Each structure stands twice: as structure tokens, then as C-alpha cells.
Amino acid sequence: MSSKALRLGTRRSRLAMAQSGQVADAVSQVTGRPVELVEITTYGDTSREHLAQIGGTGVFVTALRDALVRGEVDFAVHSLKDLPTAQPEELALAAVPRREDPRDVIVARDALKFTDLPRGARIGTGSPRRTAQLNAYARSHALDIETVPIRGNVDTRIGYVRDGELDAVVLAAAGLNRIGRSDEVTDFLSVDTVLPAPGQGALAIECAADNAELIAALGELDDPFTRVAVTAERSLLAALEAGCSAPVGALADLLADGQIVKEMRLRGVVGTTDGSRTVQLSTTGPVPETYDQAMALGRELAAEMLAQGAAGLMGERAH
Fold it and tell me: In sequence order, what E strands does 112-247 have?
């Protein structure tokens, strides 16, 4: 490989810059080449509409992918949960590094835990998935909460709590960890309470599909266990024919006996945003050894969920 600097395409948000900076350092180490960040503004960054109204989180990805295809950047870093499930032929998902904490967290006033929030507590989230599961949990545990749709970066969201507009907001643990603000978390939401978005906590590193040398170099950063887990989760999402903004949660985790990983468990949930109806199922089997096996795991669980009426809980299905 030449010694010329590699251009990494990234969104401009503080979180995107932080995670892209971490990947840039790792890529420099494996390639011996400097990496420069190229900031790209996406439609999702400039629109003030709620994500579900503007086509889901794929709106954060298109501009980066366009820059890759045009050769303006050599590779791009995405939050994996933002990637549409269909992979463009001209681009390769070269690496999925080791996953951060996939859980959702609460940042609440007075350092409150979720279950200690007062009656009628106003909880902010821009995610139909979080809304559906929080409301379902509240219904089944006789909690009285109001979910409030919000948008904005981490500062904006936490600001709603600091200013007293909201009692709490829900954020991803991984994002707060990456920008060094995990000390502001007042409660970690167990995945038994709220299943994360498919791919949450993982990053995706994409480059041109015809750049074999760069694909091989970026592949050094790939974590095989993370990749099979997120592949199964995203396969479930695709088989439900649901977009990134649908109220679908999924998590594949590895079940170990001591140091030896024995099995993979895939859990999925879909529900109405008011929490009145949910379909939640899981399946456990051997750890997938190939992409096709991971895809099959997701499709099988999705088929069981659809057989139990999952399709009717998602509103307009994305095709």
C-alpha cells in the first residue's frame, strides 16, 4: 500500500467524530498510513423532522455512501444500527469491530433509576422501538410514564433533563461511552426490559467493493463474533421487512461455558408504540460459522414472530 493518507468519511456529530477518530487510529496502525477525517453532512443531520418521518436512520448513511461511490473518500464509518439491511453491490462491509455495550441507558433527574421515576414521568426518546418497549414494561409493572418524541444530539437530549422539560431521556450506552460521558448515566436498562436496536453498539466500516487491498487491511479490525451476532440481528430485521425506524429490537449474544463459547441466543421483539401488544421470542443454537448460517438464524426467528402476528404491530411495513 502507498504511504498516501487514507480519507475516512464521517458524519460531523461529536459522537460520529469520536468513533471515526478511534477507527482512524486503528486503521493507521494496521496500514502504516495516516488517516484524515473528511466531514460529510447528511440529510439526517440537517432535517429537523422525526426520524420515522424521513425514512428512518438510513438518512444518516446515504451521503457517506455517495461520497464512497464517487471516490471522494476511501472508507466510511457508520453506526451499524443506522445501516439499511440491503448492502449495495459496489460497497463492501469490510469490518465490524468488536462491539461496545449494546444496552440502552437512562439519564434522569436527581440520579433516578427507571423504576424510581415519579408517576406521570416524561421520558424522551426519538425511537419507536424504545417507546414500544418502555410503554410495554410500564403497562406490565403498573408504572405511569409518558414517552415524549425528541430529536437532537446527546447535549440537546440531556439538556431536556437538565432544564426540567423532561424527567429522563433514553440513550445508547455505546454512544455515551465513546464520547466519555458514561458517568452521566443514572440507570442501565436491562436487555430483558428493552432489547436494543439490531446492531446497536457496533460500528460498520465500508469501502469500495473493488478495492481488495483496502478490504484486506480493514479486515484486520473485524471481530468475528460481533459480525455473526449483528448479521443475525439484521437478518431478523430484514425478514420482518422492517426499516431502521420500525419498533423492532434484537440482540444476539454468545452463551459461554467458562472460556468456551457454546451457543448463540437470538432474541427479537416487535410491539405497538403504546405498549399494548408485543411479540417477543428467542431461539438458541450453535454459534453460526458462516454468513449464511447467521442469516438463517435471523430469518427463522422472524418467521416465528410473523406467525404470531408481528407484522400487524409495526404499522406501515417498509418494503
Answer: 121-124, 145-148, 168-172, 187-188, 203-208
C-alpha torsion 304→305→309→310, nearest 10: -160
Q: Which residues are catalytic?
A: 81-82, 129-130, 151, 157, 244
* Sign of the torsion angle spanned by Cα atoms 73, 84, 254, 181: positive
DSSP state of 12: S
E strand or H helix at 257: strand 248-257
Strands (E), 62-151: 75-79, 91-95, 104-108, 121-124, 145-148
Contact (Cβ atoms closer than 8 angstroms) between residue 204 and residue 83? yes
Q: What 3-state DSSP class applies to 75?
A: strand
| Separation of alpha carbons 267 and 117, rounded Å | 27
State pLDDT tens for residues 87-143: 999 999 999 999 999 999 999 999 999 999 999 999 999 899 999 999 999 999 989
Q: Length of the chain in residues, anyone?
A: 319
